[in-house]
Structure formats: structure tokens, C-alpha cells
Amino acid sequence: MKYATIPSDAVDIAERDYHALFLAQSKGASIVPGPDGTPRAISRADGEEIDLSTVTEDSDFRAVHSVRDEARIALAHARKYVYDHFSILNDPTPDAWVAYLKALMAIENGADTVSTELPAAPQ
Which of 42, 56, 81, 115 is the most exposed place for a label (fewest CB within 10 A)? Predict the structure, then answer.
């Protein structure tokens, strides 16, 4: 590809590394400049530099969420669901949804410190 102007600090890299960098990024990695300006892929899961020769379609470099983080996300979705399907219609919230919300809140606020996975959402 031809460019009108190339930045003065641009670093030439091999085409295979270029493709591996962007594949790693699509799998959750960050691309950052190294000390000499050469782009590096960094895993969001552990913060370590990724050996580009090991990047495959099956790679996963996303940050690992704690069960508390997952509960926070699930709680936001569950609250919206309950509001959209019950509260906004002035219908009572079913007991199964109340129990689910309370279980998520306990994980999210730290009251439940033993759960290692989220409860199943009501059907």
C-alpha cells in the first residue's frame, strides 16, 4: 500500500508480524510500541508480551473477569429486563427474578464471597 506521507517514527515490520498483530488485537490483545518503536502485542489477560508466532484463530487475550465483575454486568442487564418487562407496566416482579437480582447484588457488593459462578437467570 502506498502512502502520501509516512510518519518519521514509523517502523518497518514483516508482513507476517503485521497480520499476527492485528489477529492478536482481534482476540483481545493491545498493540503498543516497544522501546524501539516496534509494535508489540500485549495480552489483556496477564499483561505479558505475546510471541507473535504463537497467535492463532483460537487465541484469547481478553482480560479475565472476576465473578464479581460478571455479576456487576449481569445485574445491569437483569435490572433493565425487570424494568422493561415488569416495573414499567406496573406488574409485580416475579419471585424468581427478585431472588436472581438479590443473588447478583450479594455477589456484586461483596456480601457473597463464596460463589464462583453466577446463578442462572430465570426463564
Answer: 56
For residue 117, give the DSSP letter: S
pTM over 0.70: no
- Residue entry with cell 455479576: 71
Placement of cell 443473588 in the chain: 103
> Residue 121: what residue type?
A
State the Cα–Cα distance between residues 105 and 74, nearest whole angstrom.
10
> In this predicted structure, what is the pLDDT of residue 1?
62
Give the containing element (helix H, strand E) for 83.
Answer: helix 67-85
Q: 29: helix, coil or strand? A: coil
Q: By the 8 A CB rule, do 70 and 118 touch?
A: yes
* Dihedral sign, Cα of residue 82, residue 87, residue 88, residue 89: positive
Strand partners, 40: 32
CA-to-CA distance for 54 and 20, rounded, in angstroms? Answer: 9
